Description:
The protein has about 325 residues and is an alpha/beta fold. The chain contains ten helices and eight strands.
Amino acid sequence: MQDRARNAQGPDAPIQAAGRCFFSGTERRAVFVDRIPAPDNMPRRHPIVMVHGGCHTGTCYLATPDGRAGWAEIFATAGHDVFVVDWPGHGRSPVCEDLAVLPTREIAEALLALIKSIGPAILLVHSASGPMAWWMAEQAPEAIVAILGIAPGAPANILPVLPNDAAEVAKLSHDISLGCPVLLPEDKPVQVGAEFIATYWANAPRFPKGALAQYRQSIVPESARLFNERFNIGGQGLCINDPASLAKLPILIVTGDHDPRHPREIDQATATFLGAEFLWLPDIGIKGNGHMPMIEDNSDTIAALLLNWLGEKNL
C-alpha cells in the first residue's frame, strides 16, 4: 500500500496543512489520523500526537463516553494542533489480516512515520503505547520534544522475562508487581470481555459508570502478540538500547491510585529508569483515578495538569 500521507512535495514533507482526516504510517502498516487544529486566534504551540493503548482507538481522546469534551479538543483549544491516531488494524485504520500477530515495533514504526511528517511534536501515550514511545524517542530524538505518559508500559529492559508457558504465567495472573500478566495464543486476535473491562479499565471511582455500556462499544480486538510482548513473555518485549539517550527529553509519567496494573512502584520505576518526572495523582490531592483518566469524571482537571506542565517547559 502506498503511504497516503505522502504528497507531491516528497515523503518527508510536513503535513500541517493536511485535511481534517488523513492516512499516514508505513507502506506495510497504514494508520488513520484525526487532525484537530488549534483555533486561528491562538498562539501556536507544539503539535501533539495522541496515541491510545491496547484494545482501544483514538476515540478515547476525541470525547468521553458520557459526552464531555475529550482531551483532543481541550489541548487544541490551548493552542496545540492535535493529531489523534488509530493503530494499524484498529478503528478507522485499514484492516490487518494478521492482527493476531501484529508486533509492537511495527505499530511504533507506523506512528513514527506520522510524527516525522508532522515535525517536532509532543507525544502523549497511554498504557501499551508506552514502550512504543520510549523506542520512538530513541530512534528519532529530533522528532519528539516531550512525552506525556499516562500509566505507560515500561520498556522491556526493566521487565522480568516471563516463561513462554501458559500454565506458569497463569500462576502469576494476579501478581500486581508484574502487571497481572497473561500469555495468549497467537492464532486469533484477542477480544476482551465485560469482566476484564470492569476489572482493569472501568473499576475506578471516577469512571463514569452511567456510560459503561457506551464505553464498552469502543473496545476493539487486539493483537495477541502485543499482549505477550507487553508482559515480556520469553523476552519478546520492546527494549531501548540506551536509557541515557532519553534523559534530556522532558518526560512526565502520570498514574492514578486505582489502576490495578500500574501501582505506584511500577510506574515510578519506569520514570527512574528513563530519568523522567513522575506524578502520583494522590500526592497532589487527586484521588479515585484508574487506568482511563482521559475519560474519567475529572478528565478536564488531568488535562489542565498536563497543559500546565507543558507550559512550564515552554512547549
